[in-house]
Amino acid sequence: MITRSFRSAIRLSIATMAVVGLTLGGATAPPVAAAGLRNCVDIPTGAQSGRAGCYELVWAGGSQYRMTFSNTSFKGAAPQPLDAFYVVGPQTDAPQGAPPNTFAHDHVVRDVPAQNHGSYSVQLQGYFVLCSGAGIVSGVCVPSWTSVGGPDPLPFAATINGHSLTSAEAIESAAADGLVALINLGPGAVVVGSISGN
Fold this sequence. Notes:
By secondary structure, the protein is α+β, with helices and mostly antiparallel strands. The protein starts with a helix and ends with a strand. The protein has helices spanning 4-15, 17-23, 133-138, 168-176, and strands at 54-60, 63-71, 83-88, 106-109, 123-131, 141-146, 154-160, 163-164, 180-184, 190-195. The strands form 2 sheets. Strands 1, 2, 3, 4, 5, 9 and 10 form a 7-stranded mixed β-sheet that branches. Strands 6-7-8 form a 3-stranded antiparallel β-sheet. The relative contact order is 0.22. Residues 1-34 have low confidence and may be disordered. It is built from 4 helices and 10 strands; from the N terminus they run ααβββββαβββαββ. A hairpin with a 7-residue loop joins strand 6 and strand 7. The protein has a domain at 4-126 and 183-195.
């Protein structure tokens, strides 16, 4: 059963879709310089926010990879099918997204390209992965209480039963067991990204 405060936290997370721009590195990039493509979370915000390419680190199948985004904001009708771009609590001492430009978090995607064998989607829908009330009360889901700009911090899932959440399978299994809630961040959180190496 979800408590009133947890429902309020979920509503807050949905209401903070504007923060998703920061979560997904929604920042502007100057033209690519000799230094190469920049990390999305290191680029300052501005009028061109979300219009230039950048990269972020993501987890897939327990390994860390570099995902390149042609832009960090998809405009128009959402492409189908959409795969998940999960935002979880930090999985190591070095979060993939961190202050001062965003809040401490990591990203998880389902698949990496297997030389055109297997499923892989570059069209991604953002989700917050939050510990459920049952997960917190049981002690199975360890939250990373994180402020995303609202009045109350949110319980981003950091571990389940002491195990990291570095694969989509681990996250989806925890969701099926009611230990985490997957909060769809809506059409404003659709991005196009591709794994470009680890």
